[in-house]
Specification:
The mean pLDDT is 90. The strands form three sheets. The protein has a six-stranded mixed beta sheet with strand order 3-6-8-9-10-11, covered by helices on one side. A five-stranded mixed beta sheet has the order 2-1-5-4-7. By secondary structure, it is of the alpha+beta class. The N and C termini lie far apart (52 Å). The chain has helices at 12-21, 41-58, 125-129, 131-139, 190-193; strands at residues 26-29, 32-35, 63-66, 71-74, 87-89, 93-97, 109-110, 115-119, 145-149, 156-161, 167-172, 178-181, 186-189. The protein is globular.
């Protein structure tokens, strides 16, 4: 996650006023505002591919895929207008089923996502794996699936919520394999997710030194 805009502490309402007038996107965590970094070509291609594949499969169902411009709120529901607790984030892809629930009348902060997908970047990977996922699984009762998609190699990590509130992790890393998201009856084939994406060249293997007698 990027460094905060400043050391000032903002309430959630102050953040929303600021963000709704801003040109660049910013996330909010417990009073601090963080500017989001620009994306790489691979990151953009993967996001586009994910939205395309999910939207096609969800056509005619009660679920819909939303773009990365939809904010998600995950935090305690406090009535105090001066609260600084909580996370407002911009997931790369969100799926919501049924009637969307929103933070306020502006309808730009979602409260009940079912599936969240993050495409990993060097500057955000630790946050996506750690604090962000902790907030998601703690405060989003509607969330059934959380996917982390690597952009520099063929790998999707699929966390799915179990009936006893535990989370199961599945690794999928073969291009012809797919991630089955049973909660929304969708399958993401990795070859489609990584369409047009070129991975960095792997470092050359260093031959083992021959044993000297």
């Amino acid at each position: 996650m990027a460094l905060p805009q400043s050391k000032l502490i903002y309430t959630a309402e102050e953040y929303l006023v600021f963000e709704r007038e801003a040109v660049e996107r910013h996330e909010y965590l417990d009073g601090e505002i963080y500017e989001m970094a620009g994306e790489s070509l691979a990151h953009g291609d993967i996001c586009t591919n994910l939205v395309r594949e999910l939207s096609n499969q969800l056509r005619g169902t009660r679920c819909r895929a939303l773009s990365k411009d939809m904010k998600v709120r995950s935090g305690p529901l406090l009535e105090a207008s001066r609260s600084t607790k909580g996370l407002f984030s911009y997931p790369d892809v969100v799926v919501v089923c049924g009637e969307p629930q929103f933070y306020d009348a502006r309808r730009d902060v979602l409260l009940n996502p079912n599936v969240i997908i993050e495409v990993l970047s060097p500057s955000t990977e630790a946050f996506d794996r750690g604090e962000k996922f902790l907030r998601y699984r703690t405060h989003l009762a509607s969330l059934t699936d959380y996917l982390l998609v690597s952009q520099d190699k063929c790998l999707i990590e699929h966390y799915r919520r179990m009936n006893d509130r535990r989370w199961e992790l599945i690794f999928v890393e073969e291009m012809e394999s797919g991630v089955q998201i049973a909660s929304i009856d969708c399958r993401l084939r990795l070859a489609d997710v990584y369409d047009r994406v070129t991975f960095p060249d792997a470092p050359p293997e260093i031959p083992e030194a021959e044993n000297e007698n």
